[in-house]
Design brief:
By secondary structure, the protein is an alpha/beta fold. The chain has 12 helices and 6 strands. Helix content is 42%, strand content 9%.
């Protein structure tokens, strides 16, 4: 139960349903703290139901090597003629460095990311699942099908956005990434962001949100409002002050992971996520008309 509770928290959930009557659940939803930024009822796409992710033990941090130097990745990327060539070179670096060899993983394919190299909108999840591992593509399982519905409802397609994860290989039993696993893989995610330079990033669940924003706040305090990337110098982030100079200023909208929506298929949860995505739509529309 403790493992399940921890994993559920990292998906962006700050409570566990205990089988209370719908009337009690409705009263509790109405009593949410002000920071939840409850959305007005709106039409939203239909979202579908799924299963929880068990967690696995963390590796011994003392035995792990330092993460690859972000400056060296930048130098390799910048030597390429265009954004797609930079992403291809970055993937080659990842395959050679293979940070996943240092932690517990049994994978079939590297799932590096896919989409437009010049996308205005980027989605960042936590790690590949079973179907992603088999195909080598991010978000193609049940959670991925739900994410694609969300993307289409926003007026985009998989081909016009960029989708990736913090980890590039599947953890055993779809376990939530540990902080050390995220640390080793973070430079590659950061360089993906620098190459693509999206106007907005949607982080799906707490692992991606915590990593990019340098925070440990719960999802209820993060979703429903914009955050800055790179994070402020005071945040306990993964980017040093001098490294942050190489990044454009990007706005981040954290929201619940599609896997959580599949497991907690309620009107209230769907409305919250759709409200977050509507804020992204409005911001990107404003940028394109400016």
């Amino acid at each position: 139960m403790a493992q399940h509770a921890r994993t559920t928290e990292l998906l962006g959930v700050d409570f566990l349903p205990l089988g209370k009557a719908p009337q009690i659940e409705q009263e509790q939803a109405q009593a949410q703290p002000a920071m939840e930024v409850e959305a007005k009822p709106v039409e939203h796409p239909e979202f579908l139901p799924n299963a929880p992710k068990p967690a696995t033990p963390s590796p011994n941090a003392a035995s792990l090597p330092p993460a690859i130097d972000l400056a060296s990745l930048r130098a390799i990327s910048d030597a390429q003629p265009d954004a797609q060539s930079r992403l291809d070179a970055l993937r080659e670096c990842y395959e050679q460095d293979a940070p996943h060899k240092h932690f517990n993983t049994g994978f079939t394919n590297i799932v590096f990311g896919e989409g437009a190299a010049d996308a205005d909108l980027m989605f960042v999840g936590e790690a590949p699942g079973e179907q992603e591992d088999l195909t080598g593509r991010p978000f193609v399982g049940r959670a991925g099908q739900l994410l694609e519905k969300m993307i289409v409802a926003m007026g985009y397609s998989r081909e016009t956005v960029y989708i990736c994860n913090v980890l590039k290989t599947r953890p055993p039993n779809n376990a939530t990434p540990t902080s050390e696993e995220a640390r080793l893989c973070a430079p590659y995610l950061l360089e993906q962001i620098r190459i693509i330079q999206p106007k907005a990033i949607v982080t799906l669940g707490l692992p991606a949100s915590h990593l990019l924003l340098g925070t440990t706040s719960p999802m209820r305090a993060l979703r429903g409002r914009w955050h800055a990337f790179p994070p402020p110098a005071a945040a306990q982030g993964i980017i040093s002050d001098h490294e942050a100079d190489g990044f454009p200023s990007i706005e981040v909208m954290p929201t619940y992971h599609p896997a959580y929506l599949l497991r907690s298929y309620t009107e209230d949860n769907r409305r919250k996520v759709w409200s977050d995505l509507q804020m992204v739509i409005e911001r990107l529309k404003g940028d394109s008309s400016a």
